[in-house]
Amino acid sequence: MSQYKLLVRSAKQVVTVRNNGAKVVCGKDMQAVDIIDGDDNDGVNILISKSGKIEFVGKNSKFEEKYKNLTVDVEIDATGKCVIPGLVDAHTHPVWAGDRVHEFAMKLAGATYMDVHKAGGGINFTVEHTRAASEDLLYKGLKQRLLNMMSTGTTTVECKSGYGLEVDTEVKMLKVIDRASKEIPITISSTFLGAHSVPRITDRLIKIPDIISDALLRCYDTFSGDMSSWNQDIATLNSLVLTLVRMVRDTSPCMSCEVSLQTLQVKIY
C-alpha cells in the first residue's frame, strides 16, 4: 500500500494561499500570495497525504533530502508548468431554466430591476421556467455550468436552490444539485434558498413559517433522513425567524432567507 495520495513533481512555479509564510491571511493581505519559483535544475514539488493534507511544498532538492523511497497513489509530472490552488466559488445560483437575455435591451434603455420585474421579467420569469422544467433539463444546464467553472479553475462551489419558491420545485432543484455532487468531480456545498424572494400573491409573514415548518422539514427528510426529532427545534426556529422578519419588514423589502443543508445555518438578509 502506498504511503501518500499525490505527488506533483518538478513544477516551474507554485502559487500558495499564504503571505510571508502565514498560515491564515485576511483583508488586504489576501491581495498578496507566496510564489515559489523553480528552475530547470530544481523544480517545485507538492506532496499530499492520504487524508488530503499538504505535507510538503518546496524545491525538489529539499524534498529529496526529507523523503526517501516514498510511494504514492498518483504522481504528476508538472515540468514547465504553474500550479495554483483551486478556486472556491462561495455564492452561486447555477440551477435554473429560461434565460433572461431579452432583459438586457430593457436595461440598456434605462429600465431598473423593478421596471423589469413589473414587466414580467426578473426572478419571477426564471421561477416560472424552472418550475416547468424537468429534473433532467435542469441537470443538463447545471452540468454544463459546473464544467465551465471547472475549466477555469474552480474546484469547490456552493450551489443554491431558490428559483422554485414552493416546496416541490425547491426539492427538485436540490435533487439536481445532489445528483451533480455524485456525478461531477467538483466539491459542492448545497444551500436551500427557500425564501429567495416573496412569491406572487403571497405575504412574507405567511410564507416564512411555511418555508421553515414545511419546506425545510421536507428537504431534510429527502436528503438527511428522519427529521421527526427536530420538530421542537423547527418550532423554535420558526418563532425566531418570524420575529426577525417582523423587525425588519418595513426596512428590507427585498429580504431573503437561506438555509445550509450541511449545517442548518439560517441567514436572513
From TrEMBL:
Pathway(s) where this gene product acts: Amino-acid degradation
InterPro entries the UniProt entry points to: HutI, Metal-dep_hydrolase_composite, Metal_Hydrolase
Enzyme Commission code: 3.5.2.7
GO biological process: one example: L-histidine catabolic process to glutamate and formamide
Alphabetized Gene3D superfamilies for the sequence: Metal-dependent hydrolases
Keyword vocabulary terms for this entry: Histidine metabolism, Hydrolase, Iron, Metal-binding, Zinc
MF (Gene Ontology): imidazolonepropionase activity; metal ion binding
CC terms in the record's Gene Ontology section: cytoplasm
PANTHER family registered for this protein in UniProt: IMIDAZOLONEPROPIONASE, IMIDAZOLONEPROPIONASE-RELATED
Name this polypeptide is given: imidazolonepropionase
Species, as recorded: Mytilus edulis
Phylogenetic classification of the source organism: Eukaryota, Metazoa, Spiralia, Lophotrochozoa, Mollusca
